[in-house]
Amino acid sequence: MALVLTEEQTMLRDMAKDFFTEQVPVTNLRKLRDEEDDLGYDKDVWAQIVELGFAGILIPEEHGGTGFGPMGLGIVMTEAGRTLAASPLYSTAVLGAGLILAAGSEAQKAALLPKIAAGEMLTALALEETNHHNPVNVAMAAEKSGDGYKLSGEKKFVIDGHIADTLIVVARTGGQAGETQGLSMFLVDAKAKGVTITRTHMVDSRNAAIVAFDGVEVGADAALGAIGAAYPELENVLDLGRACIAAEMLGGAEAVFDTTLEYLKERKQFGVIIGTFQALKHRAAEMFCEVEICRSVVLEALSALDERRNDIPRASSLAKARVGEAARLITNEGVQMHGGIGMTDAVDMGLYLKRARVQAQMLGGSNFHRARYADLGGY
Amino acid sequence: MTALDKFREETRAWLEENCPESMRTPMPEREMPWGGRRAKYPNPDTKVWMDNMASRGWTAPEWPAEYGGGGLSKDEAKVLQEELARINARPALTSFGLWMLGPALLEFASEEQKQKYIREIVNGEIRWCQGYSEPGAGSDLAGLQTKCEDKGNHYLVNGQKVWTSYADQCDMIFCLVRTDTSVKHDGISFLLIDMDNEGVEARPIKLISGASPFCETFLTDVKVPKENLVGELNKGWTIAKRLLEHERSMISGMGMGAGAASMGGMEAVAKENFGTDGDKIADSSIRQAIAEHKMDQQAFGLTLKRASAEAKAGQGMGAAASMFKYYGTEVNKRRFELLLDVMGTQALGWEGEGFDSKELSVTRSWLRSKGNSIEGGTSEVQLNVIAKRVLGLPDA
C-alpha cells in the first residue's frame, strides 16, 4: 500500500506546489471573478498547465500524455486546491481523459487523447439532472434515430459546461431511472444544433452550466463505450473524480488550516496572542488531526485507483465523505477564528468556504457516500 | 534456503513441541498470564507455556539476549509473531513489565539493574504496577508530592499513589517520587519499590463499570534500598515521559474492534434490531451513523499505517503518538455510544436474568471506555501537547 509518496511523486508535488503558488495564487481567481471574465479561467495559466504535462497526466505516453496515473493526478489536484486555481483540470484532465481512456474505442482514444494532452480540447461531463448526485437516477432519453441517436433533456451543474468543446453526455437508451442498465454515454459537439448552454454563476466563482438538449442528433460513432452498458466505466471514472475532488478539497483544507494557524500566532486581543487561549488551541489541534486523517484517506483512494484494486468504490466514497466533512469543519473554523475579518471579502477564508461547499456536492455529498459505503459493506 | 527460512522452520517445529494444545484456544480473561509471585494458574498449561517461551527469551523477542531477552532481529521477531499467529497461540506473558517498564529500564537503568530486573520480567517472575498519578496530581502529573528522603543507607518514602493498575496483585511498583521540593520537573526521581515492604498498602477502587482494575496505594514510612533508584537523582521526569509514550501507544490501540466484534459486528446487531430492507439496515439514520463511524475507524487505521510507513521511510510524523491516543480513544468511545443506540435497552442490563453474557459485557465495556480518554493523559492534555509541540502555539 502506497501511503508514502515515491521520490518521483515527491518531485511532481514540489513542482506542482511551486507552480500553483507562484503562477496561480488566489489573486488569480479574484481577478477572474472581479473582472467577470467570460471564460472563467485564464488561458495563459491553462497553457502553462498543459506545458507542465498536467493536462495529460492520466494519459499514457503513446497518446501524448505523461502517464503519471491517478496518484500523480491527485497530487496535482491537491496543490491546485491549495490556491483555488481555476482551470479545466478537473473537467478535462480528470473526467474527460478518464472517460475516454476507460470507455473509448481505439479510434476515439487515438483521436481525442492527444488533443486533451496538448490542451487543444476541453470536455465537460453532462450528468446531473437533479439537486443531488446519483448517477443511476439519470432519466434523460437518447432515442434511436436512423443510424444514430436523438438526445432530449436538460442537464445541470455541468462543470466547465460553457467552455467545453465536447460534452460527454450520460443518457438512457433503455431501462428506468434507478437502474444501472440502459445508461449510455455520447460525445456531443458543444456547438451542435439543439444544444443550449447557459452559464450559471455559482458561489465559488468557478464554472458551471445548465445544458439543454433539444432533439440533438448524433451519429452511432458518438457513443462512448457500449450502448446501454456504460455504467461500469462511468462509475469507475466517477470514483476517480471523487478521489481527485477529495484531493483538491484536502489542498484547500490544508491552506485554510495553515493560514488560520498563522493568524492564531499573530493576532492579539486582551493584550495577548489569541493562540494562547486553550479554547482555540484545542480546536486547532482537532483540525490538525482532521487534516492528518484526510491525507490518509486521499492517499488510500488514489493508491486503490493506481493499483486498480477491487476496493476502489469503498476507498473513493471514504475519501469523498470524510474529507468533505473535515473541509466543512475546517473552513467554518477558519472563518470563526479570523473573527470579523474572516467575514470580509478581503481575506481568502470566504473563498475557501464557498469552494469547499461546492466540492462537497460534486459527485455526491457525504450522505450519498455514507449510504454507498454501507451498501458496499453489505448493510 | 535463507537463514530466515531456516529460522522459520526451526521455530515452527519448536512451537509445535512446546506450545500446549490448550494454549492454542481463545483465552478467557481469568487465564491471562500476568505472572508474578502471587500468580494463580487455573489452567496449569499457562505456566508451562510461559516458562517454555521464557526459556528462549521469546516473551521479549527483541530484547538483548545478555539480559535474558530473545535477541532476535526485527525480521526474526516478525517470523516468530507469524508462527505464533499461525497456531493461534495465546500470549505467553502479559505484563506492564514487558510493555512499559522494560523498555525504559533498557534505556536508563544501570548494568546491575538490567541484569536483575529485565531477566525477571522476561521470566514473568515479577508482576509490576505503575505508581504515577496521585490524588493531587492527575493531568498535572509533575505536581506529584510523594516524598522521598535520603536517610543515608536507604530512602524513606511517604505518600499516596492512585490508579495503580492491579496493585493488589502486583509484586513491585515503579514509582515517581519527589526528591526535591524546590523545583517541579527537576525534582522528580524514578524509584522501584517492593510491594511486600512494610508500609505499603493497596486498596482496590471500584469503577462505574463495576470492575476494580485499579487501586489506591498508600506508602507510609517505606524503606527503599538506594540501589532501587533508576537513572540519576532528580532526573526521573525524562524516564517518566518516555514511559508515557509507551503507555499512550498501548492505550490508543486497545479496544479497537473489540466489544462490537463479540456481538458479531455492529451491522449485524443493527439488522436484528431494526430489520432489513433488502440487505440494508431498515433505519436509515442508524445506517448512516454506522457508516460514518466505520469510516472514522478505517480512516484512523489508515493513519496508523501511514505513520508507520513514514517512520520506516525515515520521515516521522511529529507528535503522532499524541494524536493517536486522542483520536483512537475518542473513536472507541463513540463506537460504544453507537452500539448502545443500536442495541437499545438490551445494552443497559447490569446483571442477572434477561441479558446474555455478551450483552452484559457491552454494558460494562461501554462504561469502561469512558476511562480511555482520561487514563494515560486525558484527551485535553493530548490536545495541549499537539497544540504546543506540533503546532507551535504559545503558552499563556
Automatic annotation (TrEMBL), chain A:
Organism of provenance: PS1 clade bacterium
Cofactor(s) the record lists: FAD
Keywords attached to this entry: FAD, Flavoprotein, Oxidoreductase
Family the entry assigns: Belongs to the acyl-CoA dehydrogenase family.
Residue ranges crossing the lipid bilayer per the database entry: none
GO molecular function: acyl-CoA dehydrogenase activity; flavin adenine dinucleotide binding
Domain Acyl-CoA oxidase/dehydrogenase middle: 133-203
Domain Acyl-CoA dehydrogenase/oxidase N-terminal: 6-120
Entry keyword annotation includes Heme: no
Protein name (record): Acyl-CoA dehydrogenase family protein
Pfam families: Acyl-CoA_dh_1 (PF00441), Acyl-CoA_dh_M (PF02770), Acyl-CoA_dh_N (PF02771)
Span of domain Acyl-CoA dehydrogenase/oxidase C-terminal: 237-373
Keyword Disulfide bond: no
UniProtKB/TrEMBL annotation, chain B:
Domain Acyl-CoA oxidase/dehydrogenase middle: 129-222
Ranges where the Acyl-CoA dehydrogenase/oxidase N-terminal domain occurs: 6-125
Pfam families assigned to the protein according to its UniProt record, in alphabetical order: Acyl-CoA_dh_1, Acyl-CoA_dh_M, Acyl-CoA_dh_N
An MF annotation (GO) of this entry: flavin adenine dinucleotide binding
GO cellular component terms attached to this protein's record: plasma membrane
InterPro entries in the cross-refs: Acyl-CoA_Oxase/DH_mid-dom, Acyl-CoA_Oxase/DH_mid-dom_sf, AcylCo_DH-like_C, AcylCo_DH/oxidase_C, AcylCoA_DH/ox_N, AcylCoA_DH/ox_N_sf, AcylCoA_DH/oxidase_NM_dom_sf, Mycobact_Acyl-CoA_DH
Tagged with keyword Metal-binding: no
This protein's UniProt keywords: FAD, Flavoprotein, Oxidoreductase
Domain Acyl-CoA dehydrogenase/oxidase C-terminal: 234-391
Cleaved signal peptide residues: none
Needed co-factor(s): FAD
Alphabetized Gene3D superfamilies for the sequence: Acyl-CoA dehydrogenase/oxidase, N-terminal domain, Butyryl-CoA Dehydrogenase, subunit A, domain 2, Butyryl-CoA Dehydrogenase, subunit A, domain 3
PANTHER family listed in its UniProt record: ACYL-COA DEHYDROGENASE, ACYL-COA DEHYDROGENASE FADE29
Similarity comment: Belongs to the acyl-CoA dehydrogenase family.
Protein name stated in the entry: Acyl-CoA dehydrogenase family protein
Organism this protein belongs to: PS1 clade bacterium
